[in-house]
Amino acid sequence: MPLRAFSAARTAAALLLVLTAAALTGCSASAAGQTAAPPVEHVSSADQLGPDDGYIPDGESVALTDDVPAVTRLVPRLRSALDRAAASAAHRDVTFTIADGWRSERYQQYLFDRAVVKYGSTSEAERWVKPGDQSKHVRGEAVDIATADAMDWLNRFGAEYGLCQIYANEAWHFELAADADGNCPAQLTDGSAG
Ligand SMILES: [Zn+2]
């Protein structure tokens, strides 16, 4: 049955062609993605960071009303949610201050590089700090709350404003993540899970 054999061979050849094309497309897409992304700058010392990086020194914090890039470069939806939540929390004498908000990519990378030294490996560091190109802080979509009473308030009432604790090991880190009914998603164990 030469005709069937020919047909089968042709089908196999066509399939191979499709698979090869798919593989090539995948390769060229990821290669293009890699060349398009600019390299992340590595900063060796906090002395090289300033307010324009969203840098807030350890132990310091800023108010939501401060005119600093850490606050002003947060996405408007997050800022407005924080402002509304803060106004409500003020009735209970709880004041929101933030230890970190928007960060430049090189500031985030500095934190990540420091975490790799502290925890001994990139995988362990990723449980606590995202690399420079992956952080919600760099996108202005996350804040780290500075005080325990404000964290506690947000954990109880933040979802009404869309604000959720994302990682079980980061009681201070909040993002806009609640659904339309005001329910937060299940917390991830740590940064490496997300
Ligand atoms: Zn955070």
TrEMBL record:
Keyword annotations of the record: Carboxypeptidase, Hydrolase, Protease, Signal
Native source organism of the sequence: Leifsonia poae
Signal peptide residue numbers: 1-31
Keyword Hydrolase (UniProt): yes
Record InterPro entries: VanY-like_core_dom (IPR003709), Zn_M74/Hedgehog-like (IPR009045)
Residue span, D-alanyl-D-alanine carboxypeptidase-like core domain: 75-160
Region of interest (Disordered), ranges: 35-54
Keyword Hydrolase attached: yes
GO BP annotations listed: proteolysis
Single annotated GO MF: carboxypeptidase activity
Designated name of the protein: D-alanyl-D-alanine carboxypeptidase
